[in-house]
Amino acid sequence: MSSKAPTFGEAALDTNGPVTTALVVGLGAVGTRAARQLVDTPGIDRLLLADRDEHLLAEIATAFGPDAQAVDFAPGDPIPADVDVVVTALPAGVDHPVVTAAIAAAVPVASSEEEHDALEQLRVLDPNARGAGIAVGIGCGLAPGLVDALARHAASMFEKVDEIRVARTGWAGPASVATVRYERRVPVRTWHDGSWREDHPHGDSLVWFPEPIGARDCRTVTGATALLVDAFPDVARIGVQLGEPPKRARLRRRFGDEGEWGAARVEVWGRRDGSFDCTVYGVVERTAVAAGAVLAVVAARLVGALEPRLDQPGVHGLGSLLDPVPFLAELAQRGVRAAAFEGVAVA
Amino acid sequence: MKVFKRLLLVLGAAGAVGMLARVRGKGGVPPTTGGWRELEGPDFR
């Protein structure tokens, strides 16, 4: 039996049974926090850590104790033997070879990928994942990720959903900042009246997040819109917005080692009880902390370390992969809590 | 020198207008009533 003190969730595995091993690839802001969450998850017995920065890798492996071990693994390598689940938290586009290798080894994957081109490259692996009979969760972060689950949760309260709007401000680390800048700069693909529409980026508009974040300028981006369309193919309009990252490195340094506070907001518009109505959910948390928790919970559920197990073969966003209520309950236990806006939402 | 001063003036005015537009943003109406309530189990609604 492991000597670590269980902290989160209910173990689904007998700890005297087979050892469950997770491989975490990428120890940036999100990967480190996901690894920390997995170390504290009963049912995950062993953690293999991989990063291109050998000094950082050794430091983190030592800090996480005897259950964590540094391994020599890089994107493109085959998945090591005895790995039960792969967790990727890599810069945009880098995790494709890792996911491909995991599918070849029939090992489930949780990925924090959020950039739209990279997400498309992962989505086309869907037939491969189905053929291998494994589940691959992509966009496992704050937004995409938690917001997709919140959208699913809100949509369950409507007879018919007309529109879903998702917005996020905040970024997890330098790679996340780069992705946000890229998304805000390139032409946008939005889901409008049931079809894709291409457009140039428009200006920012104000989005109200829960306090203390409050109002922030956000711009419509492509982002993970496709994951929401996969989850809600009958919804006429789906839009994703991202807030503006800091322009200079000297501004970023002011936010401290704990990382940038972020927030996400989900609006679901539709019909219930014969009238047009709206449900608004929001989250405020350090972006990397929320993303790490989401990534870890999805990985733990993919491998059955947390119940209910996610075993639906294919490549999925969280809006189509999981039942939101147990997911929200597990995240709340880990300190990531969502809120509902009660009042008059503005269309 | 005169041209340089005029150029500086034009650039300064453009910057001020840009800053004003940036600060104000566009669209969006603040929710004047209501507030945020933390979701709690078992339904998280």
Summarize the structure in short.
Chain A has 347 residues and is α/β, with parallel strands linked by helices.
Span from first to last CA of chain B?
Answer: 67 Å
Q: Distance between termini of chain A? A: 54 Å
Which consecutive residue ranges of chain B, at least 5 long each, have pLDDT under 50?
Answer: 22-28
The SSE string of chain A, one letter per element, is EHEHEEHEHHEHEHEEEEHEHEEHEHHE
Overall, the morphology of chain A is: globular
Average pLDDT for all residues of chain B:
70
Largest sheet of chain A: 7 strands, parallel
Percent of sequence in beta strands of chain A: 25-35%
Mind explaining what this structure looks like?
The complex is a heterodimer of chains A (347) and B (45). With 347 residues, chain A is α/β, with parallel strands linked by helices. In chain A, 31% of the residues lie in helices and 27% in strands. Chain B has 45 residues and is mainly alpha-helical. Chain B has 1 helix and 1 strand, in the order αβ. Chain B is rod-shaped, with a radius of gyration of 23 Å. At the A-B interface, strand 10, helix 12 and strand 16 of A face strand 1 of B.
Topology:
The complex is a heterodimer of chains A (347) and B (45).
Chain A: E1 21-25, H1 29-39, E2 46-50, H2 54-63, E3 68-70, E4 85-88, H3 96-104, E5 109-111, H4 116-123, H5 126-132, E6 135-137, H6 146-155, E7 160-169, H7 174-185, E8 188-192, E9 195-199, E10 205-208, E11 215-221, H8 225-231, E12 237-243, H9 249-253, E13 261-272, E14 275-286, H10 287-302, E15 314-316, H11 318-321, H12 324-333, E16 338-343
Parallel strand pairs in A: 1-2, 1-4, 2-3, 4-5, 5-6, 6-15, 7-12
Antiparallel strand pairs in A: 7-13, 8-9, 10-11, 11-12, 13-14, 14-16
Helix pairs in contact in A: 1-10, 6-12
Chain B: H1 2-24, E1 34-38
Features of the shown structure:
heterodimer; A: 347 residues; alpha/beta; seven-stranded parallel β-sheet; seven-stranded mixed β-sheet; 27% strand; disordered N terminus; B: 45 residues; mainly alpha
